[in-house]
Amino acid sequence: MTDTTQTETSKDSDRVIIFDTTLRDGEQAPGCSMNLEEKIQVAEALEELGVDVIEAGFPIASKGDFEAVQAVSARIETSQVAGLARATRKDIDRAWEALRGAANPRIHTFISTSPLHMKFKLQMEPEQVYRAVIESVTHARNLCADVEWSCEDGTRTDFDFMCRCVEAAIDAGASTINIPDTVGYTVPEEYYDMIDRMRARVPNIDKARISTHCHNDLGLAVANSLSAIAAGARQVECTINGIGERAGNAALEEIVMALRTRADVKPEWTNIQTEAITKTSRLLSSITGFSVQPNKAIVGANAFAHESGIHQDGMLKNAQTYEIMTPESVGLTKTNLVMGKHSGRHAFKAKLEELGMQLGDNQLNDAFARFKDLADAKKDIYDEDIVALIDDSLLGGSDRIRFNAMHVVCGTTGPQNCVLKLEVDGRTCEAQSTGNGPVDAAFACVRRIVPHEARLQLYQVHAVTGGTDAQAQVTVRLEEDGKTSNGRGADHDTLVASVRAYVNALNKVLEKREKTAPEAMRATA
User: 367: which of 33, 103, 153, 250 is 20 to 30 A away, CA to CA?
Assistant: First the structure.
């Protein structure tokens, strides 16, 4: 059954609101920080995906979070934009200041309600927390027409106290009540029972939508979310690729495709345009540098791969023997070898549109030039090559440092040597260095040209396609003063891709540094 037919034949009461917190909870995962441009990119992709609510950040947390929520609010037109706030007037006022430009804003305010959190985290008595619920929701509702309230650590909260707080929050103006499994503690049958009992116990619960927010510490986030939906929850808080703190959040793609694939036993439905799932997953992975494991459900590289002879035989006879959904239903198309060095600009643009990519004229010109260079060096150009090339061309961050050229001498005799040219603020700079291997030598050259103390936390290489002429896609993570920056680079030469990735990460480091020390970066070579 298609999504359109399903929507037409399902009752509106079975619709599940998708609340995506990739830009807030997802970004809190170590190494997942994104700059402003990248957050806008992801927000626009989420809107195209059909996400109902985009939680864009925690405005009080930092100037960067405030600016991100403000920018996403100004850019997004169809999805709601939410900002997180603790149960204080200062937090809520800051959230509203960031959200007020949104077409459809939501303030999401929360407070801990479990005995453990109230005693050790908040150092508040239950009655103090109860009053804070009323005061915070009332204040938020006076500012914003749509308010969501969450009881942090809800699954370890005394049930009677939680019901009392939920009733008070609804009376104060909350139209969405979120019961988070903050530490990934609950199990499906317990979570179902909690939601079911709450619907029967809280007298005004019909005036609000119940929401879930499940973490994956026990690997149960998706199962718990689906169980809560069965019990009557009609909003699910989730992230692309399941990223998030610790073991992550419930994965949007898994929840959505479970509902769509098993519509025969699950009448609930979403407005997600599932054909955009793979593209959105790849975008987030490329920005954060967090690769999706091959066996990841829905979006993993092996999700639709069949190597077993028995499986292959069945697939050849009827794909449904081993596929419960089609690759096309999540936006995965078969690779076509239709592009090469003789392909023109028009054909290249058409291929980008086929892959769901829209570029401006200047971006298209730059991408086409990169494509021609790749086509001269590589015999066959796969769709994955073009996706990697475009991702590399559209990397976020400033471009004060740009790759120019390099020459490397390496082998068993050593020492490995690199000569590197970079453009720094429009000026060509050159350095030569040796190292413990060609990558070490190349990175040493970057440090000579642009001195810095950022530490290399991650260096990761993977082949975009098969074959010895495959493009390399490199991810680099740099850390300075506790802040991490991810960089990516793609090229048919692994060393060139490595320097591109390092430079991309370093540009982001400098961008963060210059907000407080504009003169900190100087080219010395």
Answer: 33
